Amino acid sequence: MVVDDMSTSRGLLLKALEEIGIRHVGFETTGLRAVTALESSPTHLVLSDFNMPELDGLGLLAQLRSRPSTRAIGFILVTGRADPATIEAGRRLGMNNVLLKPFGVPDLRNCIEAVVGRL
User: Which of 13, 20, 80, 88 places its Cα 20 to 30 Å from the Cα of 104?
Assistant: First the structure.
């Protein structure tokens, strides 16, 4: 699942996923909507933007890790902020990887493969 409030960023992620052969990807536009959707229909991996209203990427991660039904979902934070404090906070919460913007398709593939194995 891709979680991003900006349609352009969301579209870039979805297009890049399709280019590496990952199709049938769900998306949500807010962290709160993602929590609800993932509780009712868990997925293997979430790629979430960091900067979103209502519930940012780290807030979403915290919510997912606090629920038994979503605790084991892989989580990649997508951010343009390479701020070490943000990345460390994500790691403490159980983030599996981080993808820095701007990114290319090979970067996305490598990031995902580091979490789920070879595609």
Answer: 88
